[in-house]
Design goal:
Blueprint: H1 3-20, H2 22-25, E1 41-43, E2 47-52, H3 71-82, E3 83-85, E4 91-105, H4 111-116, E5 120-135, E6 141-156, H5 161-190
Parallel strand pairs: 1-3, 2-4
Antiparallel strand pairs: 4-5, 5-6
Amino acid sequence: MGLTSFRKTFLAFVAVFVAGCATDAQKSGFPQISVAHLQPIILNVARVEVVNEYVSPAARPNVEHEFPVSPAAVAINWGRDRLRAAGAYGVARVVVRRASVVEVPLKRSEGFKGLFTRDQSERYDAVIDMMVEIRDESGKVRVTVESKAKRSRSVPENISLIEREKVWFKITESMMADLNVALEKQIRIHMKDWIR
């Protein structure tokens, strides 16, 4: 078996092992990513609805289902934590349109050089896309704001599972920090007539 064949076999084994640990990753002690500590935005609507339109393929190259803290769940929690209804009519809808992370294999050094080179082995391309809209009592959309956060991060070939999970956690945390700032700014500008 050549070096390249051995490497591929070993990486296939690691991929199966990591997939088997996906359930454990949910119990690995990572904190929840939350904005519950921030003052909620009070809207003059009867209720707040949070809708997740993103359905993960739950198969590679997508890996968001393996994350210790789900990007979609964090986005859903944002809507529940940041917006409050305090009116008699209408609805504010928070829509998670996308919360995906794709693993992209990177080219590695081959042959003799590959034995002594620590390459970046994968890149994670992450996107969370969210929208907030206000509908009146007849269901007509009165105003919409939206924002999208992206992150790309590569990891070395010798990274451990726990270190990989830390990278995934940081990706999710930083995207939601960006979205929180962007969405709040837009809400305060474009939905000011509905803010109490």
